Amino acid sequence: MGDAEKNLGNEKFKAGDYNAAITHFTNAINIEPTHVLYSNRSACYCALRKYALAQTMGSAWHSYSTRTELALSVAGMTRH
At 56, which helix (H) or strand (E)? Predict the structure, then answer.
């Protein structure tokens, strides 16, 4: 399971090391993809102000998360 990678990603996110968090969330997604992991990774891209990547990476999961919606909203690309 990708729990160890997810936990490392959460720690890095809390520390403000968003690039490292992206790496850990991606590793966790490669092990066992969940909407939470995609959402967490999108939050990292939002924190880095990379809104287009937040949308692209979040949309890899079929149901958009709240954080992906936030990224779309901030980037002016809300869905209708």
Answer: helix 51-58
The burial of 30, by beta-carbon neighbours within 10 Å (0-12 exposed, 13-18 middle, 19 or more buried), is given as exposed
pLDDT at 19: 98
Q: Would you give the distance in Å from CA 4 to the centre of its chain? A: 16
Q: What is the mean pLDDT of the chain?
A: 83
Q: What is the spatial distance between Cα 80 and Cα 72, in angstroms, rounded to a whole number? A: 11
Q: Is the pTM of this model over 0.85?
A: no
DSSP codes, 8-48: HHHHHHHTT-HHHHHHHHHHHHHHS--HHHHHHHHHHHHHT
